[in-house]
C-alpha cells in the first residue's frame, strides 16, 4: 500500500510540467481539461497549493466566450496529433477549439470544503467565476433543445472518445476532404487499444469543420457534422451546477442562485429524454435524428451522481449493474459486454476508467447504495494492485491498456480507492 502511495505521488510529480500535469508522458504531452480536474484531487492529498494551481493553469486557457478548451498547448510537442497548428484557434495560450466534461465546479467545491468552506476563499472565488462562465457557455451554445442537456459537437468533447454511442453519427461524417495526416498515438501504444483509422478520419473531419468556420461556436452547434446529446456530460453538468449552487449560496450570490436553480430544474426534467425504457438506462441520443444509442455505458450510471431518476429507474440501473457483474470480473466497464462493438481492450468500448468509476461510486454512496460503491472502489484498487497505474483496464482480466504511469489513475488511488 505504502509503496503504491509513493508510486502514485511520484507519477504526479514526474508528470508535472510546471503548474500543470500531462496525463502521461509521450502519448499525451499537453494539459487536458478533465484530467487536470481529477489530478487536482490527487495533489490535494499531499500538496494543496499545487492542487489549486493545476486548475488555475487550466483556466488560463479559457476563451472569452466562456469555453474551457479540452487541451491547453502550453509548449508545442511533435509527439501528439492533432497539435496546436492543426487546431489553429489563434488563442494565447494555444488551445484546441472544443471543450470536455464539465467536472471542474464539483472538484473546486470539494477542494474548498476540505479547507473549511470559507466563502471569502479567494482561490475558490476566482474558479467559481470561471466555472459559472463556462456553464453559461454550455447553456448558450450547447442546449439546442432547451431541455438542460448537453450537446457535444465532437466525440472528443465527451472524453469517452470512441464509445460505440457515437458510431451512427460518425458514420454520417464526410471524410472525402480530410487529406493526409500522421497519427502519433499508435506510435506510443498498441494500435489495438486505440480508435481505428476510419474513426480517426472522422474525428479529423469534424475538427476541420470547426477550423474552417473560424471556430464559430454558433455555426458549429447549428450546422456541424456531429451533434450528439451526451448522457455523460449532461449528468456531469447537472451535478456541477448543483455544486456551483452550493458555492453561490455560501457567498450569497442571489442572482446566480436563481439562475442555477432554474437551470437545475430544467436539466432534472430534461434528463427523461435520455431514458431508454428498453435498455432500462439513460443513453446518449442523436440531436439530429433523435435516435437513442440504446447502449448501457459507465456514463449511464452517473444518474446517481447527477441526482436524477425515480425509484423505478434507479432500480433498473441497479439491476443493470448486477447484470454486468455476470460478464465483468471488475466494475465498471465503459460498455456492457455483448453490446455492439464491445472490446475489453479498446479504449472506451469496454475498458474501465477509474475517473468515471469514481464519479459513479460517489453517486451511489449519496444514494445509499454503499455496498455497490464499495465494490467499485475495491475493484478499482485491485486493478491498480494487479497491473499498475494504467490509463484504463480490461474489465475481464484486469490487464492495463493505453498509457502507463497515468496521472488521473494515480490521483484516483490517492484521493479515493487506496
Ligand atoms: C483521451 O483523448 C485524447 C483526445 O482528447 C486522445 O485520445 O488523443 C481520452 O481518454 C480523454 O478522455 C482524455 O482526457 C485524454 C487525455 O487523458 O485522452
UniProtKB/TrEMBL annotation:
Keywords: Glycosidase, Hydrolase. Gene3D superfamilies: 1.50.10.10. Residues 28-409 form the Mannosylglycerate hydrolase MGH1-like glycoside hydrolase domain. One of its GO terms (molecular function) is Glc3Man9GlcNAc2 oligosaccharide glucosidase activity. One of its GO terms (biological process) is protein N-linked glycosylation. InterPro entries: 6-hairpin_glycosidase_sf, 6hp_glycosidase-like_sf, Glycoside_hydrolase_63, MGH1-like_GH. Pfam families: MGH1-like_GH. Belongs to the glycosyl hydrolase 63 family. This is Glycogen debranching enzyme. It comes from Sphingorhabdus rigui.
Amino acid at each position: 500500500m505504502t509503496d503504491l502511495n509513493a508510486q502514485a505521488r511520484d507519477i504526479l510529480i514526474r508528470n508535472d510540467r510546471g503548474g500543470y500535469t500531462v496525463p502521461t508522458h509521450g502519448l499525451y504531452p499537453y494539459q487536458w481539461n478533465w484530467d487536470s480536474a481529477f489530478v487536482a484531487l490527487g495533489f490535494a492529498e499531499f500538496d494543496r497549493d499545487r492542487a489549486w494551481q493545476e486548475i488555475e493553469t487550466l483556466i488560463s486557457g479559457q476563451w472569452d466566450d466562456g469555453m474551457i478548451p479540452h487541451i491547453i498547448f502550453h509548449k508545442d510537442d511533435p509527439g501528439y496529433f492533432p497539435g496546436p497548428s492543426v487546431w489553429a484557434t489563434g488563442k494565447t495560450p494555444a488551445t484546441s477549439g472544443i471543450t470536455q466534461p464539465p467536472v471542474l465546479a464539483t472538484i473546486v467545491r470539494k477542494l474548498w470544503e476540505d479547507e473549511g468552506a470559507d466563502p471569502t476563499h479567494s482561490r475558490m472565488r476566482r474558479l467559481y467565476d470561471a466555472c459559472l462562465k463556462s456553464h453559461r457557455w454550455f447553456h448558450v451554445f450547447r442546449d439546442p433543445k432547451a431541455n438542460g442537456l448537453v450537446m457535444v459537437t465532437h466525440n472528443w468533447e465527451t472524453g469517452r472518445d470512441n464509445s460505440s454511442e457515437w458510431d451512427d453519427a460518425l458514420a454520417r461524417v464526410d471524410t472525402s476532404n480530410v487529406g493526409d495526416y500522421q497519427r502519433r498515438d499508435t506510435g506510443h501504444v498498441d494500435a489495438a487499444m486505440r480508435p481505428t483509422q476510419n474513426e480517426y478520419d472522422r474525428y479529423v473531419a469534424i475538427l476541420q469543420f470547426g477550423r474552417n468556420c473560424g471556430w464559430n461556436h454558433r455555426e458549429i452547434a447549428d450546422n456541424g457534422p456531429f451533434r450528439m446529446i451526451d448522457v455523460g456530460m449532461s449528468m456531469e453538468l447537472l451535478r456541477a451546477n448543483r455544486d456551483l449552487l452550493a458555492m453561490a449560496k455560501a457567498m450569497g450570490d442571489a442572482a446566480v442562485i436563481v439562475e442555477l436553480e432554474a437551470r437545475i430544474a430544467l436539466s432534472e426534467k430534461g434528463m427523461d429524454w435520455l431514458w431508454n425504457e428498453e435498455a432500462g438506462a439513460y443513453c446518449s441520443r442523436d440531436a439530429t435524428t433523435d435516435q437513442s444509442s440504446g447502449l448501457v455505458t459507465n456514463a449511464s450510471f452517473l444518474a446517481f451522481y447527477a441526482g436524477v431518476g425515480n425509484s423505478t429507474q434507479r432500480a433498473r440501473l441497479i439491476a443493470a449493474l448486477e447484470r454486468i457483474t455476470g460478464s465483468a470480473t471488475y466494475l465498471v466497464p465503459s460498455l456492457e459486454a455483448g453490446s455492439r462493438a464491445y472490446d475489453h481492450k479498446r479504449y472506451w468500448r469496454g475498458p474501465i476508467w477509474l475517473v468515471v468509476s469514481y464519479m459513479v461510486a460517489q453517486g451511489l454512496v449519496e444514494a445509499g447504495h454503499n455496498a455497490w460503491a464499495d465494490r467499485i472502489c475495491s475493484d478499482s484498487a485491485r486493478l491498480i494492485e494487479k497491473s499498475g497505474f494504467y490509463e484504463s483496464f480490461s474489465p475481464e482480466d484486469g490487464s492495463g491498456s493505453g498509457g502507463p504511469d497515468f496521472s488521473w489513475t494515480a490521483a484516483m488511488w490517492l484521493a479515493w480507492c487506496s
